[in-house]
Amino acid sequence: MSQINRREFIKLAAAASSVPVLGIPSLARAGAAKAKVVVIGGGYAGATAAKYVKLGDASIDVTLIEPNKVYTSCPLSNEVIVGHRDIKTLEIGYDGLKKRGINVLHDFVVGVDRAKKTVTTKGGKTLPYDALVVSPGIDFHYTGIEGYNESMIEDIPHAYKAGPQTLLLKKQLEAMPDGGKFVIVVPKGPFRCPPGPYERASLVANYFKHHGKAKSKVIILDANDSHSKKGLFNQAWAKMYGWEKEGMGTNGMIEWVKGAEGGTITKLDAKTKTVSSDFVDVKADVLNIIPPHKAGKIAADAGLTGASGNNFEKGWCKVEPMTMASAVDPSIYVVGDSCVAGEMPLYGNPNAAFDMPKSAHIAMTQAKVAAAAIVAKVNGQAVPQPYYANTCYSVVGDDYGISVAHLYRVEGGTFKYIKEGSGVSMMTMPDKSPVPAAYRKLEAEYAVGWLRNVMADAFS
Amino acid sequence: MQKALLLSALASGLLLASSAHAELNVAGLANTCNNCHGTGGVSAGESMPSIAGLPEGYLKNIMMEWKTGKRPSANMTRLISGYSDEEIAALAAYYSKLPWMPVKQKTDAKLVKLGKKVTEKCAGCHGDTGKSEDADTPSLHGQWSQYLQLEALKYRDDAFNMPNKQMVKAAKKLSDEEIKAVAEFYASQNK
Ligand SMILES: Cc1cc2nc3c(=O)[nH]c(=O)nc-3n(C[C@H](O)[C@H](O)[C@H](O)COP(=O)(O)OP(=O)(O)OC[C@H]3O[C@@H](n4cnc5c(N)ncnc54)[C@H](O)[C@@H]3O)c2cc1C
Asked: How do beta strands A61-65 and A36-40 pair?
């Protein structure tokens, strides 16, 4: 292709296109702000929403409200637990957003007045909004396991919100004697990062191998009957951790007990760290209970959560597919773990309707959709076509990464899961030969590159 | 050839807009890519490539190679299959129009020196510094060193069977150290 033709083409194409160039914010207009956007929660979802509203239209006044001065990424926090990564590499502040002209208020939202369109904070401030982004992530249900309550998390960590909890579980793992049992209690879905507990189990087994604790076990007591990337996890576990098969009492370092066969834990004896189901009692040396999830409390307080329905409806915020606007309030957009969106044929069951996975990756594409919808609305433009995508990498051993991807479009006003563009890493090569180690190594490297990019794309 | 391409792109855009399909929103599509490739296609992660400012022909070609299964990749084959040919063409046009932003990164001076020497034999296609001079060759100057290394290793490794045989031939002549060195050299040309 000759240079002249190429230049000509660029000129022509540029003239024919009205595509805004990202990274070059439109000039702020002088005078009063066009509109006020308030964002509740500065996690992956909220930070991205704030940034992309500002990128889309610099004349919109954006305020992000978040209690913590430093955010700690959950993604790759399982690597911290096993000593592969310093927690500092997961921390990021809000200076990047401030530099973009976003007001960052370190405070906690205690109320939303939807009629007056204001939010109030613990610090006593009341802020008006034209559009409100609600992105408080998740809260836990501490009910459901007899003998378990929130006050126990200093002894029985969940490590499912990264930070001190992550470091606590790390300390307990390090103190565990060889031959001990590291027990992970997995709640019924939906929970954030569907592969998260299994990635954790893999890395803990890897830790045992490298730290002279090869007689120890990781036991996953799972309230569900299947899990994310199951084939790939089992393949990796067989390769590295002696995995044999499902159920209790197998020889491998990892045991997985499904809900229907005793994995659903209903009772805890906190003194002895013994958890029980209808079928089994397991005494743990390290006990990691991940409680069931619900939308962040403020979403429920604001009346945005479903009051009834199945696990995927009750306690979560339903949204409009085109814009991520709340199904109950068109001025409010719910993005990230708090929302329920889409329909995903999960874990090989094409008939089961579930929501989009709760991940940082999809939280960010949801936030970008909401930001574009807000900018369009403020400027009186048509709603741009939305697209949603997810990728979850899991690092499961030395130089061994796997991933799952999901793509959603909106057709006829509803979410549509796109099978092409989704799916897991190859189990075998197309000719059925084993996947070369080089592929798994690449995905372990890409996981880290991904982390740096999502952190930068959301916070800088 | 380019005019024909443009016409067909415009025509397909019109077709899309007037058909039952939703209107193509290329910036929205790109947002699904930028989680991994960085805001505006400029990567902040060492193992992930920046894609803003790569030549359109190259972008389109490799995306279509992934989609049609001709080009192996741990991730991109799977991801790109969900995008229509029109969307791929639109994404290639979109990213090629963004500026190439070489990333500032630390490089090892000794390796850079060795890399300068080794890349003399690459200059016929990649120029002295890795700056792309034609539509089918990617820019290497100021691309992330780790990404360049990983990619060069793929060209060398039969497990990947990369479709561009000239690059396979060039990479097969490189030792492990030389692969590091060429990556460091091109990465250091970040102007
Ligand atoms: C172990 C683990 C591993 C994971 N790995 C991955 C991975 O590899 N890839 C991936 O994509 N995802 C992963 N995830 C999931 C990911 O962490 C979440 O999906 C993501 O953080 C969701 O973003 P969010 O912004 O909705 O919520 P959060 O990140 O939880 O952010 C919510 C924010 O809101 C703030 N907030 C809450 N209430 C209020 C209030 N009332 N007022 C003001 N602020 C408030 C909180 O302080 C918090 O900062 C992982 C999760 C875990 C636990």
From this structure: parallel
Using an 8 Å CB-CB cutoff, list chain A residues near B143. none
State which fold the A150-289 domain adopts: FAD/NAD(P)-binding domain (3.50.50)
Angle ∠(A149,A155,A156) on CA atoms, nearest 5: 60
Pairwise CA distance, residues B36 & B31, whole Å: 10
Cβ contact B83–A449 (<8 Å): no
* pTM score: 0.92
* ipTM of model: 0.89
**A453 contacts B36? CB cut-off 8 A:** yes
Q: What are the start-end ranges of the E strands in A292-360?
A: 293-295, 317-318, 325-326, 329-334, 339-340
Domains and CATH numbers, chain B: 11-100 (1.10.760.10), 102-191 (1.10.760.10)
β-pair partners for A288: A184
Question: Is the link from the previous residue into A190 a cis peptide, with omega within 30 of 0?
Answer: yes
Interval A13-29: pLDDT, tens:
333 333 343 433 333 34
Question: Residue A73 C-alpha to ligand 1 middle, in angstroms?
Answer: 7
Q: With bands split at pLDDT 50, 70 and 90, how would you rate the model's confidence at A11?
A: very low
User: What is the residue extent of each domain of chain A?
Assistant: 150-289
Q: Which among A408, A410, A430 is positioned nearest to B68, based on CA atoms?
A: A430
